[in-house]
Design a protein that fits this description.
Elements (H helix, E strand, L loop, with lengths): L7 E6 L31 H4 L2 H7 L8 E7 L13 H19 L1 H12 L3 E7 L4 E6 L1 H7 L5 E6 L2 E3 L1 E6 L7 H5 L2 H5 L9 E6 L20 E2 L15 H10 L15 E6 L6 E3 H12 L13 E4 L1 E3 L9 H9 L3 E5 L20 E6 L27 E4 L3 E4 L5 E4 L6 H14 L5 H10 L20 H10 L23 E3 L51 E2 L8 E9 L3 E7 L6 E8 L20 E6 L3 E8 L2 E9 L13 E6 L1
Parallel strand pairs: 8-10, 8-12, 9-10, 12-14, 14-15, 15-16
Antiparallel strand pairs: 1-7, 2-4, 2-5, 3-4, 6-11, 13-19, 17-18, 20-27, 21-26, 22-25, 22-27, 23-24, 23-26
């Protein structure tokens, strides 16, 4: 195993009272249809102004400006947008949202432009995704626009706190979380996420990390910083977003596979600035960007999945971002959310993860035991009746992932369970590109491994996600019909402290405290690597087809020229230690590697190929015996690979050749 330099991080939510002013421009629409007539009774100023804003205004000086978000009453019903294809629907959705904003915001924006010229307003930013405007306004202007008939609500532009990290020591790297969700079964079929784009809404991403650099989509439509601090180059000064992205698309540059969908591409929106704060208006702008990254609705450049490893700072219900999520879902995009680290109290659901269009993920450890910090349900947020919460669970305790400066870290929390679900969704969309994301979402829900009480429950949701089981559902067809989310109630109950924050890393000890304060934990066990040569869409029967030998059978290795290697596949019948040894000391530099599955399928023996990345274990020696072993492995297929980087290796018989063994 390649040595790693790693750091474990503790994520701490910092409070901040600083509001961030944003700038932006509204797209120019050549022609817009007339707004749909609105017969809803006109609201009064008292009902238009959010209670939290009203409380703030009571203590605000008359000459001070307050950051607010103004929403208009005339909204697009995104559920009615149709189209012959995903690209056509996405284009129609973006066009409809932009045209409605252009047709209805004119009067309000003209008023605000006039007030800006006299110093009564500033930082006016149109938001077509919610048909609203973010601005900094004096109390007198807020009172003025609250009387306008087209205005539905005025609320505070909330401040977001980003996580910071405390460096500590860590233990040896192991990744059972990737194996537990059954990602390697799809890798063995040539499915690694190719053709799929996953977006991150987080602190940014370090695009220079060896495990992430190749997965960045690149171009001018793959990175967005609403604060303008890093307008062109993906950047992360925190590390939280880098760590979550590593669990989705991370490769195996460090010696073993850490990401569930290493063949997928990623894009990112940096919703926290370099000072560690952000605003709800910045999040609206980021969701708006995700729907149309290049500003041209005719190009299909939106992501398939959006990973959101953050929640509001406390439990409760806020539908601030539900219109954004509904627009994403209408555009065939799944918004995956961390369920929150507010357990074990029930209910302890948090927004936006509990919104009707969010896909909430709780946390288990690598033995399918629920993490005590994982938020519980049920939830009734935006619904007329209680619903299952979280939707499902995934491993997120002591998982190895990418960190800043090309390093690695172990992390725990629902922030680090959600990426596994995003990765599995990417694998399935890659395998079944004709399926809608709603069908893929329904498949992973229907096929989840049931944990806890029989059926969906308020701790595990539908159960732990299983990529292979979901694959089999989609392959058998017809795809499951997704159950539409209930229509959100028009007036949510706001949380007492609705400030959102990235999900902090909780304490993953055997008896963690309910508070979401984190601390490092032991690291997991290694995971397999994807098939290096992807193949077209797989067949419905997902099983590798090597010709295995018995686990304890010694293998005769033929002569190897420099640059060649010999691979042998074997199977295990039970859980235990898997090992491979080379005992014939010939004075030649050799490398021995052990893999889960068979990354050499279709290649002749011997093969001219350096050991692929992603080995469970590997060792090198010159003229001495070699041995590699991995404990805690499940029954299945493994491959040993002996490689001669230089010089020539004479043939060796079974007595002093390659020995394969399994012990319980």
């Amino acid at each position: 195993m390649t040595a790693r330099h790693r750091r474990a991080r503790i994520l701490v939510v910092l409070a901040s009272a600083a509001a961030i002013a944003l700038t932006g421009a509204v797209p120019t629409i050549a022609s817009a249809p007339p707004a749909t007539p609105d017969t809803t009774p006109v609201a009064t100023p008292a009902t238009v102004i959010d209670p939290a804003l009203a409380a703030t205004l009571r203590t605000t000086r008359a000459d001070a400006q307050v950051a607010v978000i103004v929403r208009l009453r005339d909204q697009v019903d995104v559920g009615t947008i149709g189209g012959a294809s995903r690209a056509a629907r996405a284009a129609a959705l973006v066009t409809a949202l932009r045209q409605r904003a252009s047709a209805t915001q004119g009067g309000l924006r003209a008023l605000l432009a006039g007030r800006t010229s006299t110093g009564l307003a500033g930082s006016v930013t149109p938001l077509w995704i919610i048909n609203g405007v973010a601005a900094r306004l004096r109390p007198s202007v807020i009172a003025e626009i609250a009387t306008r008939p087209e205005v539905a609500s005025i609320a505070l532009d909330q401040v977001i706190s980003a996580p910071t990290a405390t460096l500590t020591g860590s233990t040896a790297p192991v990744e059972p979380n990737v194996a537990l969700v059954n990602a390697p079964a799809l890798w063995n079929l040539g499915v690694s996420g190719q053709g799929v784009v996953v977006a991150s809404m987080d602190t940014g991403v370090d695009a220079t990390h060896p495990d992430l650099a190749a997965g960045y989509r690149g171009g001018t439509d793959s990175w967005y910083d609403p604060y303008g601090q890093h307008p062109a180059i993906p950047t992360d000064v925190s590390g939280h977003g880098t760590s979550t992205m590593g669990l989705i698309v991370g490769g195996s540059a460090g010696g073993s596979a850490i990401g569930v969908a290493p063949g997928a591409k990623w894009i990112a929106a940096k919703i926290f600035n370099d000072s560690g704060t952000g605003t709800t208006s910045a999040i609206h702008l980021a969701y708006q960007w995700l729907l149309d990254p290049d500003g041209n609705p005719a190009t299909a450049d939106a992501p398939n999945i959006v990973n959101n490893s953050w929640t509001l700072a406390s439990t409760g219900c806020s539908l601030e971002f539900e219109p954004d999520l509904a627009a994403l879902v209408a555009g065939d995009i799944v918004p995956v959310f961390a369920a929150g680290n507010f357990g074990p109290t029930a209910p302890s659901d948090a927004s936006p993860a509990n919104n009707p269009d969010a896909f909430a993920v709780g946390t288990t450890d690598n033995t399918d035991v629920i993490a005590s910090f994982s938020s519980r349900g049920p939830t009734s947020c935006g619904r007329s009746a209680a619903a299952t919460y979280p939707n499902l669970v995934a491993p997120g305790v002591a998982v190895l992932t990418t960190d800043l400066f090309g390093l690695y870290t172990t992390a725990s929390g629902t922030s680090f369970a959600a990426p596994s679900v995003s990765g599995v969704l990417a694998l399935l969309r890659s395998a079944f590109p004709a399926a809608t994301m709603a069908q893929v979402r329904a498949a992973v829900t229907a096929s989840a491994v049931d944990l806890g009480p029989a059926g969906p429950d308020a701790t595990f949701g539908a159960g732990r996600i299983d990529a292979l089981a979901a694959y089999n559902i989609l392959a058998s067809g017809p795809t499951p019909t997704p159950t539409p989310a209930p229509t959100p109630t028009p007036t949510p109950t706001p949380t007492p402290s609705p400030t959102p924050a990235p999900t902090p890393t909780p304490t993953p000890t055997p008896s963690p405290t309910p508070a979401p304060t984190p601390s490092p934990t032991p690291t997991p066990t290694p995971a397999p690597t994807p098939t290096p040569t992807p193949t077209p869409t797989p067949t419905p029967t997902p099983s590798p087809t090597p010709t295995p030998v018995a686990c304890t059978t010694p293998v005769a290795v033929p002569a190897l020229a420099a640059g060649y290697g010999y691979w042998s596949v074997f199977t295990t019948a039970g859980t235990g230690t898997v090992s491979a040894t080379w005992s014939a000391a010939k004075g030649t530099q050799l490398r021995l590697a052990l893999y889960a599955g068979n990354p050499f399928a279709g290649k002749a023996d011997p093969v001219k190929l350096q050991p692929p990345s992603g080995a469970l274990a590997s060792a090198s020696s010159s003229g001495a015996a070699l041995g590699v072993s991995v404990s805690g492995r499940r029954a299945g297929t493994y491959t040993a690979y002996l490689y001669a980087p230089s010089g020539r290796l004479a043939s060796a018989g079974t007595t002093r050749g390659l020995q394969l063994a399994c012990t319980p």
